Structures are given as C-alpha cells and as structure tokens.
Amino acid sequence: MARIFIDGSAGTTGLRIAQRLEQRADIQLIRLAEEERKDPAARREAMAAADVAFFCLPDAAAVEAAALAGEGTAVIDTSTAHRTAEGWTYGFPELPGQREKIRGSRRVANPGCHASGFIALAAPLVQAGLLAPDAALSCFSVTGYSGGGKKMIAEYQGEGRDPALDSPRQYALGQRHKHLPEMAKLSGLETPPVFCPIVADYFSGMAVTIPLHRKDLRGSAADAVEVFKALYTGPVVRYVPCPEGMLAGNAMADKDGMEITVAGDGERILLISVFDNLGKGASGAAIQNMNLLLGTEETLGLVL
Q1: Which residue stretches of the chain have pLDDT < 70?
Q2: pTM of the model
Q3: What pLDDT shows up at residue 72?
Q4: Which residues contact residue 56 at a Cβ distance below 8 angstroms, ignoring those fewer than 6 apart?
Q5: Where along the chain do the CATH 3.40.50.720 domains lie?
Q6: What CA–CA distance (Å, rounded) separates 170 from 197?
Q7: Domain 2-111+281-294: what homologous superfamily?
Q8: How does the average pLDDT of the chain come out, rounded?
C-alpha cells in the first residue's frame, strides 16, 4: 500500500486530491494534527514516511517544503514554483516522451490550469513544424471561479456579493500572469503569448483557445487536426470533432480528462481545449502523475 502525504491539504487542490485518494484501497494517507500542519519537523517526518508527497502550497512555501523533502520521497508540486526549474519534470504526460520522464523522476511539477490547455494545443504543433518557435500567438481562457481558491469561492458564493461578479471578468491585464513562463517554455516558443484569462460566474471548468490565421500555420487546419488525432487518443486527453453551436466552459466539470478540438473556417482557425480547472488543470493531473510515479495504472482513481 502506497503512503501519501499532502502538504497543504486544506486548500482547494489538496482537498480534491484527498477526496479522490480516500476512495482508494491501495492508498494510505498520512495526516497531521491541526497544530502540526505548519511544524517543519512534523512535516519533514511525514514526508520521510511517504512514498509520494504532494505540495499544495503557495510558491514560497513550496520552495521551503522542497528543502524539507528527502531524496527518498517522490514529490509532486502543484504550485508555480518549480514548473520551469532545473531538476524538475513537467507533469503533462501526454507530451511526446514526457510520460517516461515522469515515471523516472523524483521531482514532478504539476502544470498550471491555463498552461495545461495552452501547451496541449501549441506544443504538438511546434514539434510538428506547423507552428514556428518564433510565432506571435495570443490566447484567451475562460475559467470557473474555483480556480481562484477558497477566497474567490467565498466571494462568489457569499451573500451581498459585488455586482461585478455577475459578469465575466478579465484579469492579469498587465501580461504578467504566473503561467506565462511555462506556457512558452513547454510549448517550445521563444516568447509567451498575449494572454487574456477570464473568470466567470460558474464553479469549475475551462475552455482555452488559441486563435490563428491560416498564414500563422505552416500548413492547414486539417494538418493540425491530424496531429491532434494522432497524439490525443485518450483515455485522459482526446481529440473530438468540433461541436455545433456553442461550446460551454463547464462541459468537462468534475472530470479529469481534456478534450481537444479545432474550429473555424480554414482561414480563421480556433484551437480549443476544454477541461476542468480542478481536474486535468490541478488535482486530476496530480493524481495521474502520482499513478505514474507509483507504477500503477495511469487512470486509477480518475473520473473520465
């Protein structure tokens, strides 16, 4: 039975991981008493006893936690702190060769939610030569408010809330979003995209879109479709035909998979990924990476 410790189990991501793992007979959760949650000695002891430790912490705290973890414990960090750091493996198994790297790693950086959707679309096309590394891309992403954590959830669900929450809100207007470095590096791009994230009045789920003109591609929309069809065959990430009519941001809510599609008229093209910001965008991805580290079936415990 694998022993698992979640450092930061009170946060949104940590809670979802714990809820999923509590249902598994092959997992034993190591828990600390409330008064020990921030005690370095208690945390170090829990990590040493664990086969895998999750860091569900703010960036600075995740860096401190990494210093507490010994080499014998595999670590999955869900913060931004180590996603582009040397010595850490990026935890998106569907990228070519990445699954094997994760299996052999002791330090895995779980992807950001927006970044997961962008990288899933851009990286394969850069690797296939359909997008140039110096491509000047843009991206917009619509997400549910659970992506903002407990504080934002309380704001949206509280009584007498600000009327501004009734409408979609664009943020990171200064183009300094914390996911941008990984979006560029893991996609093989020389510069990050112009990024327009939007939070809307629903709990979870997201749709990430890269708009392109035909001239932006070294090929056609059909070529992009063929790349995605070949790479994303499931069960976690899969290519699907573009739906008719509207596409809902919460279409994959409460699930741990991701759907990739291509829309447009061939001249103006939309690359779209749809998934749950708490699923493949956070906790579901972390459990998938844990399964790879433990050598168990990759989708065990996932909701697909």
Answers
A1: none
A2: 0.97
A3: 86
A4: 6, 7, 8, 9, 11, 13, 14, 17, 78, 79
A5: 2-111+281-294
A6: 6
A7: NAD(P)-binding Rossmann-like Domain (3.40.50.720)
A8: 97
Fold of the 113-277 domain? Dihydrodipicolinate Reductase; domain 2 (3.30.360)
From the list 56, 113, 196, 242, the catalytic residue is 113
Cα 256 to Cα 275: distance, rounded to the nearest angstrom: 7
The residue whose two tokens read 């844990």 is 290
Q: What is the pLDDT of residues 161-194, one digit of tens each?
A: 999 999 999 999 999 999 999 999 999 999 999 9
Nearest to residue 4, comparing CAs of 304, 283, 259?
283
Q: For position 71, what pLDDT does the model report?
A: 85
What would the two tokens of residue 203 be?
Answer: 């709990």
Residue 4: predicted pLDDT: 98
Residue 113 known to be catalytic:
yes
